[in-house]
């Protein structure tokens, strides 16, 4: 490199605010023009070219951020392997509470929870499942004459039969229910499903669907259904 060319390149690099080390690297390489191109690169982009041919980034990808800049997602992994987009991890969608805990927390199933406890079914409904529960609200239980309800709560065998008649094995979502005309229950009998005017099970109207629990799903009904 001639003295005049070296002097001009040095002046150019000094104008860009580069230190002595960077000046030496530039003079040994492509000179001021290359360093001007790097200095003009937008903040937050890596100085490393993308791919062996310096090809542009694929649609939707981002360059690796500059040192000290926060990592963003998705981002591109560099190296010998083709770049791949990576998204930040997200929390799972599985609810933390089981069917019994969901019913207790709802505040509208107090009688149902009392009945489950009286029948000794708490551990069953807290089990792995999955279960689908057609759950009567407190208002649904209130439709039963008080003396009959008290007698039912006092008769563990009859109460167990009634409660398990409200439970279907497996996780049956609302979209599945509307495709059925009946479903076999844990009690052993089958409930009739009618979808001609909303959804009804044994004549009880389904008023809320797909309340998720860790071991199944709850559909709310407006009255207690009884096995034959």
Task: Kindly describe this structure.
With 228 residues, the chain is of the alpha+beta class. The protein has ten helices and nine strands. The strands form two sheets. It has a seven-stranded mixed sheet with strand order 4-3-9-8-7-6-5. Strands 1-2 form a two-stranded antiparallel ribbon. It is globular. About 30% of the residues have low confidence.
Write a concise keyword list for the protein shown above.
single chain, alpha+beta, two-stranded antiparallel ribbon, 34% helix, 17% strand, globular
Largest sheet, strands/sense/barrel: 7 strands, mixed
**Principal-axes shape call:** globular
- Which whole number gives the mean pLDDT? 74
What portion of residues is helical?
A: 25-40%
Low-confidence stretches: 11-23, 31-35, 41-55, 57-92
How are the strands ordered across the major sheet? 4-3-9-8-7-6-5
> What is the CA-CA span between the terminal residues?
102 Å
State Rg.
Answer: 34 Å
Care to give the gist of this entry?
Helix content is 34%, strand content 17%. It has ten helices and nine strands. It has a seven-stranded mixed sheet with strand order 4-3-9-8-7-6-5.
Task: Note the topology.
Layout: H1 3-15, H2 20-28, H3 32-39, E1 75-76, E2 85-86, H4 99-106, H5 110-118, H6 122-125, E3 131-136, H7 138-142, H8 146-154, H9 156-164, E4 167-169, H10 174-177, E5 182-184, E6 190-194, E7 200-201, E8 204-213, E9 216-221
Parallel strand pairs: 3-9
Antiparallel strand pairs: 1-2, 3-4, 5-6, 6-7, 7-8, 8-9
Helix pairs in contact: 1-2
């Amino acid at each position: 490199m001639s003295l005049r060319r070296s002097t001009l390149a040095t002046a150019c690099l000094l104008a860009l605010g580069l230190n002595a080390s960077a000046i030496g690297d530039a003079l040994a390489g492509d000179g001021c023009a290359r360093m001007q191109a790097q200095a003009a690169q937008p903040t937050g982009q890596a100085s490393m070219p993308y791919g062996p041919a310096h090809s542009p980034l694929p649609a939707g990808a981002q360059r690796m951020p500059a040192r000290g800049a926060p990592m963003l997602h998705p981002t591109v992994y560099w190296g010998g392997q083709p770049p791949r987009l990576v998204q930040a991890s997200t929390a799972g969608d599985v609810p933390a509470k089981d069917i019994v805990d969901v019913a207790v927390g709802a505040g509208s199933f107090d009688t149902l929870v009392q009945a489950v406890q009286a029948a000794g079914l708490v551990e069953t409904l807290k089990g792995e499942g999955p279960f689908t529960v057609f759950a009567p609200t407190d208002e649904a239980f209130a439709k039963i004459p008080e003396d009959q309800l008290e007698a039912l709560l006092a008769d563990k065998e009859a109460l167990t039969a009634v409660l398990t008649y409200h439970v279907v094995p497996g996780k049956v979502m609302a979209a599945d229910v509307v495709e059925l005309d009946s479903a076999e229950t844990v009690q052993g009998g089958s409930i009739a499903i009618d979808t001609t005017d909303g959804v009804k099970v044994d004549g009880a109207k389904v008023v809320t669907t797909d309340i998720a629990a860790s071991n199944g799903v709850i559909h709310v009904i407006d009255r207690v259904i009884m096995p034959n």
